Amino acid sequence: MILEQLSILNYKNIAEAQLEFSPKVNCLIGNNGMGKTNVLDAIFYLSYCKSFTSGNDHSAAIKHDAPFMMLQGRYNRRGSGEEISLSVQRGKRKTVKRNGKDYKRLSEHVGLLPLVMISPLDWDLIRGGSEERRRLMDQIISQSDKQYLDALIRYNKALEQRNSMIRNDYRDPLLYETVEQVLSTTATVLHRARQQWLDEFTPIFMRYYHAIAGDNEQVRLSYKSNVGELSMQQVLNANRDRDMIMGYTTRGVHRDDIDLWLGDHSMRKTGSQGQCKTYTIALRMAQFEFLKKYTRTTPILLLDDIFDKLDESRVVSIINVVSNTQNFGQIFITDTNRTHLDEIIALMSGDYAMMTVDNGTITPIASRQEEAHP
Predict the structure, then answer these.
(1) DSSP β-bridge partners for residue 28
(2) d(CA 165, CA 150)
(3) In terms of pLDDT, which residue wins out, 373 or 136?
(4) How far apart are CA 212 and CA 198, in angstroms?
(5) Rounded to two decimals, what is the model's pTM?
């Protein structure tokens, strides 16, 4: 899949931009705070219908002195053209259109434009709470499994209903029966899919970690859930009194986590900055490979300032990994230093575009065009 053109209007610090991209490597150079990440975030927004940096706070994506923002992307997807437009007005819901038509349900857009972004914010995958790692699971599996996405939406809706009933001190067991039946049915789908996903995902992650860090550091992932040996209904029954005291549903697959291991120790407690960054990059590279396989579409890869806090050997290894043209399709890279970008371009020896970003203004400075296919 290739993003051919991107139109940006009033997005964060970018007032207006009309951009054309290389189907291979696209490099954005500029000092910190100039808007490089905002370009990548706009591309991310068109795939996920939310910002990578500000999540579901859609008003935060609007330029501070503007009443609305709009993004439009033209893609080549499996040989066919796709046009996606997304707009947000302050205080109103976002509007997303595919080829000029509104979606009946926004969930229909999930997985259409697979994309992986590697960012300094990935630090939260290790240091953050369990919701960060659950979001990773849900984001990956939902793009390749519509049954999972449907179960996740239904589970979250039923969970919200149960929590509302608890907050309002409803005690009638019949009121809980229907909601808990939905929670139990969907929890079974989610738990099984997450375990199967992690079983397949872990070896891919380990391969990328070793490709960057070498074989001296042993890593692994494990699934942590309070559903499994007990069914979701058993978990709800066992924690009913506690839930009523706490005011919400304290146990269930909405509390699932991934344990991240470095040897026999938790990466969260023992990993250095370089090891943690290598870990998150390997997680995202594995995400890319998984999505490529199960969506049958090569995702777009966004690399935002990935070389910071890494020693030279790991930088070289990452450059070698992303320069493998057989594995990756279209890549966007940001950096404050052109050296790394020139090294990647030299290794790939193919089509590229390079541009500078200065206070929200994007200016092309170099390119090489070749015939390429998505």
Answers:
(1) 334, 355
(2) 23
(3) 136
(4) 21
(5) 0.90
CA-based nearest residue to 149, from 189, 201, 96: 189
User: How many angstroms separate the CA atoms of 200 and 230, rounded?
Assistant: 23
Confidence class for position 373, pLDDT limits 50, 70, 90:
very low
Most confident range, picked from 77-91, 109-123, 244-258, 297-311? 244-258
CA dihedral 229, 233, 237, 238 (to 10 degrees): 20
DSSP track, 100-116: TEE-SSGGGGTTTS-EE
Q: Taking a C-beta distance cutoff of 8 angstroms, is the pair 263, 216 a contact?
A: no
Q: To the nearest 10°, report the CA torsion of 69, 149, 132, 114.
A: -60
CA distance 152 to 146: 10
Q: How many CA atoms lie within 13 A of 316 on its CB side?
A: 4
Q: Which helix (H) or strand (E) segment is 59 a member of?
A: none
Task: Work out the number of other CB atoms within 10 angstroms of the CB of residue 18.
Answer: 11
CA 88 vs. chain centroid, Å, equals 21
In what order do the strands lie in the sheet containing 352-358?
115-118, 300-304, 331-335, 25-29, 352-358, 361-368
Residue for token digits 């970008």?
Answer: 341
Q: What's at 228, amino acid-wise? A: G
Query: Cβ distance 227 to 220 under 8 Å?
Result: no
Q: Where are the beta strands (DSSP E) in 51-185?
A: 68-77, 80-89, 95-98, 101-102, 115-118
Contact yes or no for 42/8 (Cβ under 8 A) = yes
- Angle at which helices 130-144 and 173-213 pack, to 10 degrees? 90
Cβ contacts of 327 within 8 Å, gap of 6 or more = 289
Helix (H), strand (E) at residue 161: helix 146-167
Nearest to 333 by CA among 16, 40, 91, 32: 40
Per the CB < 8 A criterion, the answer to whether 70 and 9 are in contact is yes
